[in-house]
Amino acid sequence: MFYKVILCIGLLWGYSDRSFAQNNPDKIIDTSLHSILIHPINKPLAIPAIMLKEGTPLQISFDDFKANYQDYYYAIELMNADWTPTQINSFDYVQGFNQIKISDYLVSSMSFQHYFHYQFVFPNANCKPTKSGNYILKVFKNGNPNELVFTRRFYVVEDQIGIAAKVTEPFDGNIVKTHQKITVQVDTKQVPSLQTEQLQVEVVQNYRYNDAIKVASPNFIRGNILEYNKEDQLIFPSGKESRWLDLQSMQLVSDRISKFQKVGDQQYVFLKPDVTRSEMAYYSFNDLNGNYLISNTDALQSDNQNDYAQVVFTYWPKDHIPFLGQKLFLQGALTNNELNKSAEMVFDAKLGVYQKTLVLKQGYYSYNYILRDSHEPNYLDDFTETEGNHWETENNYSIFVYYRQPGAQHDSLLGFTTINSKQSW
Questions:
Q1: How far apart (Å, rounded) are the C-alpha atoms in residues 53 and 163?
Q2: Is there a contact between 398 and 141 (Cβ–Cβ < 8 Å)?
Q3: What is the pTM of this model?
Q4: Residue 198: CB atoms within 10 Å
Q5: How many CB atoms sit inside 10 A of residue 138's CB?
Q6: Which CATH number characterizes residue 33's domain?
Q7: Per-residue pLDDT tens for 130-152?
Q8: Domain containing residue 400: CATH number
Q9: Domain match, 377 and 340 both
Q10: Strand (E) positions, 225-373?
């Protein structure tokens, strides 16, 4: 049940904190690795979160373009809520071993691009986490942790608290029809002697981890119920439903593809140019909220029979004039949900367009464009000029509740849930 907020004199006001400066635990060190996926089994679009005591394990997979067997291992590391390392020894949070060999792999077939596809399931009989919290999965070569090839975040949840959340219109009339506000209530009755000031709520829109918003204090306490509903807290730009790319076939020119072109031993896919959608009318359709699915209509298996292509994205700015003092980013899981050089569109003065080439596996992709001021970035303006913002847009919001027990050496993850803006209407 979602409890209505009771406003009264003497509210305990909290604060919101943008997570721009947080450490990013999702890194690719070896650039020969592609399509790194981590998600609950049979839930490819879900946040990589598992229950501490029971629940669906994670499926981890990746492709290696070196196309010969590599001696890969993995380990896990417990982190704090801000993704800084804890001072806890792995013996205190791992049951079993913390250096496991990856022995399950497939060799690519029916594809021009040769690769080895590695996969494994976690937790397993050899390695299980014993504490809740944020974790980093580390994959490295030859049993040597110093030969790191990539890292990925995942979450282990205790499920000790109840979370009720809802998507509402912001109080601010200037953004009431363009942004979405999240109100959260946390039921702590199962946590004895809980100290409210040690609790922290974090909200992630879709999969934009780097733009998560954290709230350190509730603005109202009613018995065991903590309410987070301050006027200027937990506000996100609504955007529009994501743009899409259907790359499930290398034979069919789908509606977003302009042409295929073979250059040497490389397959290129040129997409039709994208333009601003800020002045386009809003309409609803099913999308993947910036995520992607690996799939194939040309073969029976996607893991090792999907091919790869150099996919060229093009964005036409108005009058072919570049954005002054601003950077344009291709945003979504296809660029690791980061706003960095690997996601930044490059302006071609001769053509008068922005372009970006990504190596992508056959599948169905969703993405958006984000425009940010180079010197004064404002996340509330992310989609204003490129996509437009409409309150009706369907978005997912993942809510994490952390707790630092007095005397503890790390932040426990007491609760997690995901809500959908359409279900809140």
A1: 19
A2: no
A3: 0.92
A4: 15
A5: 20
A6: 2.60.40
A7: 999 999 999 999 999 999 999 99
A8: 2.60.40.10
A9: yes
A10: 225-228, 235-237, 243-246, 257-263, 266-271, 292-294, 308-315, 326-331, 346-348, 353-361, 363-373
